[in-house]
Recover the amino acids of this structure.
């Protein structure tokens, strides 16, 4: 399109849009360096300090502001995210593998799986709590909450793998069979390496969604808090900049995760390219 | 020869058994996922519907079937009010995300023809999602508060003398928060659809002397519609199930159906919570079914 | 001893036998009773128009799809119902289906190392066999290249080498030249034949191109609507197609429908004199090869043993050593004449001018 004026206007708008997306986070980041314990979660910054970061790790003298209960919660959240990631990726890959062939009732199964990401967490969470009550099951983050996390992340893994298999040429598998290689070994040596980038994306999706999930966990996890529940708990009380400091840290953690993913991706791409470069030399 | 003869005598259902093996394989591949979803998704929802007809006593529910909870729900101004608030906020946020998101999607998907740059812009939009959802909600408090960033800027610029108090702990703050959090789900699908438009079509239209608005109305808008619908499904599903944004930013002034469920569960009123849950499920079902009639989600993927 | 082995060789001279093989998709038959026998150590082409079921047949033989009925015997053993990796039949795909994450060498070594039956675990033996195969197909020097870094013709060779190195007794090739450009296609034809002769395996080469099928196959199978319409060597097929449909696929016959009267064939363009060549057929038809017709001025008188019709000239088309001229007959049908330029200099025909189209009646072929 060569409508220069419109293009300029829209470009400017998009810049404002990005400010809109990032603004609150930037403000949150700035306020996390408020002095403490007397400094509140608002402007102006009385004095720049890392007090609230130290407060998070229990490195400040005791004050009237209770430290966030993050240590245990962090371990639980990470364990839960890894469990969810593994199970939902395995389920996603197997289900998508089944969908490569047409079968009767595929429409019903497709919508049953996709329903998992559509139904609000508060509904499944409530339902799960009711089921647990009725059957006398104790609610735990590693039990009732875990299965709900998988209900939520499995559809994402499934859709990612479905998209990958849509672009996957099945004749390479047939070629492998016709060379006398068993289907199991073909999957390991041919199919899996080729879909690996997709598997990695499915894992990343499942991990981050589970790590951040709280509405399902709220009703289904029992007494022990996960990280998002610990943050949710601060909503009803007065907010202090320690929550902001914590937000900055979790964001950094997520970026580290994203960075790891990018590096793994780049490595698998480069491995394919290295052979090509060798031959150029 | 005998070998060949016996092998030929083998029952002729060899082909049938191979077909059978294939459907067996499909069955075993699907069984774990389907069973998981039936047990942990369908069963809980069914349980919720069932419990909504149970008898609620002060702190307990009993499996004696009754319509009492339903009658209480629909004769209570609080609950009916929550239903209408949910519908109102959903509609406003849906329109707001579309209005706020569409121009950005238009720029990223259509005007930026450099693939790297448009991908970079989309990534830039998605990056905030790697911050905890709750932190992003909470981040609006220091923005909108009485001593927040926006009021500070407005006062320093001399636009207002007094801080605007309605910014935080009001319906407005909930709408602003939700719009910011969910508009990316609108931008993504629309930008994706716009990116698939063949630029030569637009150039041809320009060569024929069509102005921008005409091209927008006749080509761009219709072609982006599937993206709008997919985005609307995303946003609707998420906004209808919301309670955290309202809890964090409205100061209990805005009660959505989700908030009703949370408070009812908190006071062990399981049957009332279940009724609210069923109402919310029905509402979502209607909205999603209506949107799915417009576009086949499976085909767009 | 020598005699005995010859005797056994003769006994299993058919590497593949298909008996009444059926396959249908949602009730629509793709293969409607295929019967065929493929000899050992031969180049067999399978010719069929698109939709005739040729790819389906190949996939059923390879085991990628099950047959609904019938028997498939490979080297004397019944293989319908046997999964593809236990059949020992090689397959070369139209798109080559190379493993994109492996190098040329790894692609070729993959089958030897990973197969279920008799895998080769000794790295040195694998390396040696792969080296020999790379030399055989002419890929020396490209061993370490990535699959994305080689040309279409080279990919074709890798696909072939990858299959041949596992020493199957039969290789199925699904339009193996379809993805190559015209020049390369002609060159690969010769190479494919040479490579096959050196390995002594049977090739079953599927193609939709009649020239390719005729040029390459020792035997040509013609597939029509899910049945084998004819199985013959190229010469026989070209001079005596078994049915009007086969003649039509060969794309070198003018075919008239009509009725057989006592001494002539009654067609919409008139009575056509008969020669001796007859083929039994349910649908009566009269066929004359493009290159058996001569074009003469309208008023030239035909000789006693000649058949003559009239047509008006439409257009002509050069194709290398021949020129194809098209005439519109009185019933509107197009009649094609192929004139070899070695026989006569090209003539310029007048557009819409009337010409006599003449052929010897012995050259005609009658289906009745």
């Amino acid at each position: 399109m060569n409508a220069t004026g419109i293009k300029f206007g829209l470009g400017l708008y998009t810049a404002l849009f990005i400010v809109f997306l990032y603004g609150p986070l930037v403000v949150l980041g700035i306020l996390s360096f408020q002095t403490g314990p007397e400094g509140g979660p608002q402007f102006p910054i009385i004095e720049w300090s890392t007090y609230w970061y130290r407060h998070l790790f229990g490195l400040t003298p005791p004050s009237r502001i209770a430290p966030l209960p993050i240590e245990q919660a962090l371990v639980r959240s990470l364990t839960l995210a890894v469990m969810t990631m593994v199970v939902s990726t395995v389920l996603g890959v197997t289900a998508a593998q089944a969908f490569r062939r047409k079968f009767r009732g595929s429409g019903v199964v497709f919508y049953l799986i996709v329903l998992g990401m559509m139904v609000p967490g508060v509904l499944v969470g409530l339902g799960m709590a009711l089921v647990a009550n009725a059957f006398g099951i104790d609610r735990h983050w590693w039990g009732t909450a875990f299965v709900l996390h998988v209900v939520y992340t499995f559809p994402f893994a499934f859709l990612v793998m479905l998209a990958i298999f849509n672009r996957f040429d099945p004749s390479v598998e047939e070629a492998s069979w016709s060379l006398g290689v068993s289907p199991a070994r073909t999957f390991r040596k041919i199919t899996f390496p080729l879909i690996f980038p997709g598997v990695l994306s499915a894992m990343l999706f499942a991990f981050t969604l589970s790590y951040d999930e709280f509405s399902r966990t709220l009703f289904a996890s029992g007494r022990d808090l996960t990280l998002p529940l610990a943050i949710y708990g601060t909503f009803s009380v007065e907010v202090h900049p320690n929550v902001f400091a914590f937000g900055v840290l979790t964001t950094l953690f997520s970026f580290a995760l994203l960075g790891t993913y990018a590096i793994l991706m780049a490595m698998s791409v480069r491995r394919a390219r290295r052979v090509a470069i060798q031959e150029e030399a | 020869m005998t070998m060949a003869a016996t092998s030929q005598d083998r029952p002729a259902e060899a082909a049938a058994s191979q077909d059978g093996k294939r459907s067996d394989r499909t069955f075993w591949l699907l069984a774990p996922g389907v069973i998981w979803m039936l047990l942990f998704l369908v069963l809980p929802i069914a349980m919720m519907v069932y419990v909504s007809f149970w008898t609620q006593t002060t702190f307990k529910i009993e499996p004696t079937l009754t319509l009492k909870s339903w009658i209480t729900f629909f004769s209570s101004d609080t609950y009916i009010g929550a239903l209408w608030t949910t519908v109102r906020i959903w509609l406003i946020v849906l329109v707001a995300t579309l209005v706020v998101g569409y121009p950005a999607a238009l720029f990223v998907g259509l005007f930026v023809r450099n693939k790297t740059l448009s991908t970079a812009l989309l990534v830039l939009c998605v990056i905030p999602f790697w911050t905890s959802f709750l932190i992003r909600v909470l981040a609006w408090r220091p923005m909108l508060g009485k001593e927040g960033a926006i009021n500070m800027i407005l006062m320093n610029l001399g636009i207002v003398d007094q801080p605007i108090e309605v910014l935080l702990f009001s319906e407005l703050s909930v709408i602003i928060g939700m719009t910011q959090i969910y508009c990316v789900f609108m931008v993504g699908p629309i930008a994706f659809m716009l990116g698939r438009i063949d630029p030569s079509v637009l150039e041809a239209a320009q060569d024929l002397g069509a102005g921008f608005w005409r091209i927008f109305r006749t080509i761009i808008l219709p072609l982006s519609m599937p993206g709008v619908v997919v985005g609307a499904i995303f946003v609707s599903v998420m906004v209808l199930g919301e309670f955290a944004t309202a809890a964090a930013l409205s100061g209990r002034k805005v009660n959505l159906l989700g908030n009703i469920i949370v408070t009812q569960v908190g006071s062990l009123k399981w049957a009332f919570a279940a009724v609210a849950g069923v109402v919310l499920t029905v509402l979502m079902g209607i909205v999603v079914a209506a949107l799915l009639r417009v576009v086949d989600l499976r085909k767009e993927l | 001893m020598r005699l005995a082995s010859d005797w056994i060789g003769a006994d299993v001279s058919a590497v593949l036998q298909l008996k009444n093989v059926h396959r249908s998709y949602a009730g629509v038959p793709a293969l409607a009773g295929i019967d065929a026998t493929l000899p050992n150590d031969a180049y067999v082409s399978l010719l069929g128009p698109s939709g005739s079921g040729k790819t389906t047949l190949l996939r059923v033989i390879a085991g990628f799809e099950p047959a609904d009925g019938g028997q498939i015997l490979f080297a004397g053993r019944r293989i319908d119902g046997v999964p593809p990796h236990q059949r020992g039949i090689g397959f070369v795909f139209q798109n080559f289906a190379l493993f994109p994450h492996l190098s040329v060498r790894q692609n070729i070594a993959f089958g030897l190392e990973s197969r279920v039956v008799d895998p080769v675990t000794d790295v040195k033996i694998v390396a040696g066999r792969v080296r020999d195969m790379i030399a055989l197909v002419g890929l020396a020097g490209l061993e370490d290249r990535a699959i994305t870094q080689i040309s279409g013709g080279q990919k074709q060779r890798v696909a072939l080498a990858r299959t041949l190195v596992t020493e199957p007794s039969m290789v199925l090739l699904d339009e193996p030249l379809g993805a190559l450009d015209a020049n390369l296609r002609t060159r690969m034809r010769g190479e494919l034949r040479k490579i096959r002769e050196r390995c002594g395996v049977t090739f079953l080469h599927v193609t939709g191109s009649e020239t390719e099928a005729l040029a390459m196959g020792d035997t040509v199978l013609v597939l029509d609507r899910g049945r084998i319409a004819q199985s013959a060597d190229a010469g026989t097929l070209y001079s005596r197609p078994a049915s009007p449909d086969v003649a039509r696929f060969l794309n070198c016959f003018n075919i008239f429908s009509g009725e057989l009267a006592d001494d002539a064939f009654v067609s919409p363009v008139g009575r056509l004199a008969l020669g001796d060549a007859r083929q039994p057929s349910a649908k009566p038809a009269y066929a004359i090869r493009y290159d058996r017709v001569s074009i003469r001025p309208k008023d030239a008188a035909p000789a006693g043993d000649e058949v003559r019709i009239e047509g008006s000239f439409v257009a002509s088309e050069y194709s290398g050593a021949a020129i194809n001229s098209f005439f519109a007959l009185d019933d509107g049908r197009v009649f094609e004449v192929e004139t070899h330029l070695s026989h006569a200099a090209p003539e310029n025909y007048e557009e819409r001018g009337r010409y006599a189209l003449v052929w010897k009646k012995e050259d005609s072929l009658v289906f009745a």
In short: Confidence is low (pLDDT under 50) at residues 1-16 of chain B. The domain at 77-300 of chain B is CATH 1.10.3720.10 (MetI-like fold).
